[in-house]
C-alpha cells in the first residue's frame, strides 16, 4: 500500500509534458466564413441605399431666392417661396451673387423719382418656368419689394434661350400666325429686343419666357403638328370671308 502512495506522489510531482514541435507548428483551425445574406436581404439593402440617396439633402445654389412673401399682389402674380430672381428691369441677374443683386435693388432708392416708373422683376421656378411681377414706383421707392430674399436656393438658373428661340416659342403659344414674322421683327428691333417683348406682353397678356422647355422628340413632333394645324385653321378663317364675297 505504501508503494502505491509513493507511486502516486511520484506521478503528481512530475513536470507537465511539453508538446512536440510538430504539434506547435500545426495551424489553428480556420474560423468558418459567415454565410452570404439571402438574395432577399441583399435586395432590401440595395433598396435602402437607393432611398437614402433619393432623400439626401439637396445641393444648395447661390443667388437671390424668395424667402417669405408679405405682399399679396406678389403672390397673385404667381411668385412662390423658393423662386429665383433672374431678371430685374430687363437686366439678366441669373448669374449674379446675392450681394450684387441686393446692391442693385437698394440703388433704386437713390434714383430720382422722376426717373423711376415701373420695375419688372422676373422669377424662375424649379421647373424652369418664369413669372413676372411689375413693381410700381411707390413700391420701389417706399414700401419695398414685399418679399424677403435669401442667399441660397435649391436649383441653378436655367440657361437663357436666344431671342429667336424665345420669340418663336412665345408666338407658338400666343399667336401661331406670327411665327413667320419672327426674323422680320428681330431685325426691326435689333438692340431693342426688350422693348419688343414689353409691347407683346402688353398685347397678349403673357410674359415672354427666358428659357424654352425642352420636349422629348415624340412630344415635340406632336407640338409641331398642332401648331401647323392651328396655323392652317387660322388661314382658312381669313380666307372664308373672301370666298363668301366671290360666291
Strand order of the largest sheet: 3-2-4-5
Pairing-aware structural class of the strands and helices?
A: alpha+beta
Number of helices: 10
Radius of gyration: 38 Å
In whole angstroms, the N-to-C terminal distance is 151 Å
Please tell me the overall pLDDT: 77
Indicate the overall shape.
flat
**Order of helices and strands, N to C?**
HHHEHEEHEEHEHHHH
Major beta sheet summary: 4 strands, antiparallel
Number of strands: 6
What is the percentage of strand-forming residues? Answer: 5-15%
Residues in helices, as a percent range: 40-55%
Pick out the low-confidence regions.
1-11
How is the topology of this model organized?
Layout: H1 2-12, H2 21-25, H3 39-54, E1 61-69, H4 72-76, E2 84-88, E3 91-92, H5 98-107, E4 118-124, E5 130-136, H6 137-143, E6 147-153, H7 163-174, H8 182-188, H9 193-204, H10 217-246
Antiparallel strand pairs: 1-6, 2-3, 2-4, 4-5
Account of the 3D structure:
The chain has 247 residues and is an alpha+beta fold. Helix content is 47%, strand content 15%. It contains ten helices and six strands. It has helices at 2-12, 21-25, 39-54, 72-76, 98-107, 137-143, 163-174, 182-188, 193-204, 217-246, and strands at residues 61-69, 84-88, 91-92, 118-124, 130-136, 147-153. The chain has a four-stranded antiparallel beta sheet. The chain has a two-stranded antiparallel sheet with strand order 1-6. The chain is flat, with a radius of gyration of 38 Å. The protein starts with a helix and ends with a helix. Residues 1-11 have low confidence and may be disordered.
Amino acid at each position: 500500500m505504501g508503494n502505491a502512495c509513493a507511486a502516486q506522489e511520484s506521478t503528481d510531482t512530475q513536470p507537465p509534458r511539453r508538446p512536440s514541435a510538430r504539434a506547435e507548428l500545426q495551424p489553428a483551425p480556420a474560423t468558418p466564413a459567415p454565410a452570404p445574406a439571402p438574395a432577399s436581404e441583399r435586395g432590401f439593402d440595395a433598396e435602402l441605399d437607393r432611398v437614402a440617396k433619393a432623400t439626401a439633402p439637396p445641393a444648395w445654389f447661390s443667388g437671390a431666392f424668395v424667402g417669405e412673401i408679405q405682399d399679396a399682389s406678389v403672390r397673385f402674380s404667381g411668385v412662390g417661396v423658393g423662386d429665383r430672381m433672374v431678371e430685374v428691369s430687363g437686366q439678366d441677374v441669373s448669374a449674379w451673387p446675392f450681394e450684387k443683386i441686393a446692391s442693385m435693388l437698394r440703388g433704386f432708392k437713390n434714383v430720382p423719382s422722376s426717373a423711376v416708373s415701373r420695375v419688372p422683376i422676373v422669377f424662375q421656378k424649379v421647373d424652369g418656368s418664369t413669372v413676372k411681377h411689375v413693381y410700381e414706383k411707390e413700391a420701389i421707392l417706399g414700401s419695398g419689394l414685399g418679399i424677403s430674399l435669401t442667399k441660397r436656393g435649391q436649383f441653378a438658373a436655367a440657361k437663357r434661350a436666344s431671342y429667336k428661340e424665345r420669340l418663336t416659342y412665345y408666338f407658338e403659344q400666343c399667336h401661331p400666325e406670327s411665327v413667320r414674322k419672327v426674323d422680320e421683327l428681330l431685325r426691326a428691333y435689333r438692340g431693342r429686343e426688350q422693348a419688343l417683348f414689353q409691347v407683346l406682353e402688353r398685347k397678349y397678356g403673357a410674359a415672354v419666357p427666358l428659357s424654352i422647355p425642352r420636349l422629348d422628340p415624340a412630344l415635340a413632333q406632336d407640338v409641331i403638328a398642332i401648331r401647323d394645324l392651328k396655323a392652317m385653321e387660322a388661314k382658312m378663317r381669313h380666307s372664308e370671308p373672301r370666298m363668301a364675297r366671290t360666291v
